[in-house]
Amino acid sequence: MSTNNTKTSRRWLLHVGVAIIVLYCLAPFYWMVVSAFRRPSDQGDNSPFPSPLSFENFNAVFSPDVGFERSLANSLVVASITTLFTLLFGTFAAYTIARLDFRGKGVVAGIIIATAMFPGISLIIPLLKLFTDIGWINTYQAMILPSLSFALPLAVWTLATFFRQMPKELEEAAMVDGLTRGQAFRKIIIPLAAPGMFTTAILTFIAVWNEFIIALSMVNEKSMQTATVAISRFTGITGFDTPFGTQMAAGVIVTVPLVVVVLIFQRRIIAGLTAGGVK
Predict the structure, then answer these.
(1) What is the DSSP-derived secondary structure letter of residue 186?
(2) Which of 97, 91, 267 has the alpha carbon at shortest distance from 193?
(3) What DSSP state is assigned to residue 240?
(4) What is the pLDDT of residues 5-27, one digit of tens each?
């Protein structure tokens, strides 16, 4: 009887612990949503629900003089292209490191993972000078290339671990049947690696979509700024008030699509994160 009580207590403690963690993670997002639906004059209110419900902040975000739709489109372009190139280059690099033997392989792998350890702010100044000299300021490539350099190491390391867990016999059997290594990679390995590649794509897209310091440094034209930069430059509904409400409304607009994507594809994301750990 005592054993059953102990198991029940542990189960309840586990549930309570999970509930506390979930509440801790969701509390900021909940307060952001509540603040977004408050009137500008009610932003100092500490009530847990907006009363009355107001859409003034959302109307202000999409007012013609703000141009937030253009900023959202810029974020989508930068995040999508960066994700595409990260998958393209990262998959080939990861497969090379995981499957092929060549001189200096360990050094190359070490350099790739070491580049992920550099703080992004330390590279902004040299990149800013380089892009200024070649005329890339206020262009998409000035945001895509730096983001790509930060996203690639993580993608390569993640996918290389995934490829190492795949039995080499798969490719060997395909080559015995007459396929070249390239054909075996394209027809056998890529379909099996789809969960890991999908997870890498989602994580890369989210990271680039939320990126701020690169977009802030490389762009000074309003028409080219991304959503995160646009939010930081909001001036409020009147132009003089503290823009808490409009920033919270824009934050909801930027965050909700990511939440929806994660909820829809959560099974694939979890499958991709765990599949590489099981041989």
Answers:
(1) I
(2) 91
(3) S
(4) 777 888 888 889 999 999 998 89
Q: Domain residues of the chain, as ranges?
A: 67-233
Q: What is the mean pLDDT of residues 57-75?
A: 89
Contact yes or no for 214/146 (Cβ under 8 A): yes
Q: What is the DSSP code (8-state) at residue 225?
A: -
Q: Which residues contact 237 (CB under 8 A, 6 or more apart)?
A: 40, 56, 57, 60, 243, 245, 246
50 CB-contact burial (10 Å; exposed 0-12 / middle 13-18 / buried 19+):
middle
> For 67-233, CATH number?
1.10.3720.10
Q: How far apart are CA 132 and CA 129, in angstroms?
A: 5
What is the pLDDT at residue 79?
A: 94
Exposed (0-12), middle (13-18) or buried (19+): which is 273, by Cβ within 10 Å?
Answer: middle
Q: Cα–Cα distance between 61 and 19 in angstroms, integer?
A: 34
Confidence band of 279 (pLDDT split at 50, 70, 90): very low
Alpha-carbon gap, residue 244 to 236, rounded angstroms: 7
